[in-house]
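[job 0412] stage=complex_fold ligand=alpha-D-glucopyranose status=START
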Amino acid sequence: MKPCKVILIALVQVSLLATPAVMATADQPTGGTTTLNSPDDSHMEWWRDARFGMFIHWGLYSVQGGDWKGKDYGKEQGGASAEWLMNSAKIPGPEYRKALAPQFNPTDFDAAEWVSTAKEAGMKYVVITSKHHDGFCLFDTEATDYNVMDATPFKRDIIKELSEECAKQGLKFGVYYSQFKDWYHRSFQRKPGTLNNEEYLDLVEKNLDELLSNYGDMAVLWFDVGGNNVIEADQQGARVRELQPNAVICSRLYSRKVPEGKRKYADFESLPDRMLPTERMTQDTETCMTMRHNWGYDRNDDHWKSSKDIIEFLALCGARGVNLLLNVGPNPEGNLLPEETERLQEVGQWMKTNGESIYGTSYSPVDFDFWWGAMTQKDQTVYLHVLESKPEGIEFNGIVGKPAKAYFLADPARKDLPVTYDASGHVTKIEVPANAPDPRDTVIAVEYDAPVVTDSDAKGKYHWYTSRSRRHTEIRKRANAGKHALPEAVTGK
Ligand code: GLC
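[job 0412] stage=complex_fold status=DONE, emitting structure tokens
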């Protein structure tokens, strides 16, 4: 496998944070992506088709909502995200546990409601934080008493309830697991945790065995903040393959410093947080995005993205061959926030009409996008995601031949839209009324009666999310976007 530029960029990001992500593109006629490493990638098929999942950050940190002793440590204050409270406020493990665990009693928690909200939004998989960096386990475990059954009044296995509900409602279920960073058991602020390194690795092994054996089909293992010890990571990856051969493993099993070729068990590349590649991804790749600043629940963070931004982001992820894992941070009572369900419902409505332009599609047939938006493709149909329109309609180059048919996906009658084709530049023009049916993203299906052929001489550039600052300030300029989450890259802190 040709080493791609991913590693280089990630390294830069870790040090400078301001560097935008630029990814390699290898023209792939069919637009299909490949797995990072495992030769047999049949277990990736559902994941590639899914394109859209729910990320859930929930745990003891949700009790505080970013605050500690009257000070707000949330990301909107410029610091780390709310789930990093223990570290941001330098709270020793025993104090953090003593203060928060007795308060963790989310009696409103209803797995069926969370899963149906994800399903209604058009999401195909759910990934929840089973153990985050603070070391607290949201499942029943023999490895430590620092878990929801033994340390809190709640005494319900959250992973059990959610995994069963996902199975019931036909969504794939996975867990986020912080395997390397554990501020309670392993080390915190350069001081040892409750266990020595060997004991800690035992805990991880027991935890993985429990998560991989006690909760049915575990479809995704979303490890986070990998270490540089490849042997340690490989042992954990091998355990997953052994107990759940179909599980899809996140590249964060390894640190970004580990060369790609050495990441034996990584199935997909997990981009740095909230990042959209500025080119097509030829390998299985996922980005995760917050709806506001913080991943974990935060009391004061009102930097909500609009539904337009989320739908636009989803379309651009599809156009660049990337899955989107969209985050929710439920409150300590166990509820999704109204702002979250509202946006998920809107995305769900859009997906009901336009889902075929996302699910099971491959990235854009042309290696650029347009002032009006971008493309996804499935077989002989190219989907135009019109994110902005002008009275004179839209046009695109790069595809050879006149389409057989073009219509709005939102039009049940699929009435033909007027199309003209100029063979000299291979330019196709489509008349689109200035007020396109859906200002968030109007999808036009362009059908060809032969396999799609691209013009290798075609010239074009990327217009959307091309640079970190621009892609965020651009969001800001949009009237209905309101105040927005500005990832660290923009603040540069
Ligand atoms: C980063 C943050 C972590 C968050 C994760 C989500 O690793 O440290 O808190 O859970 O990103 O992608």
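The radius of gyration is 23 Å.
[job 0412] exit 0
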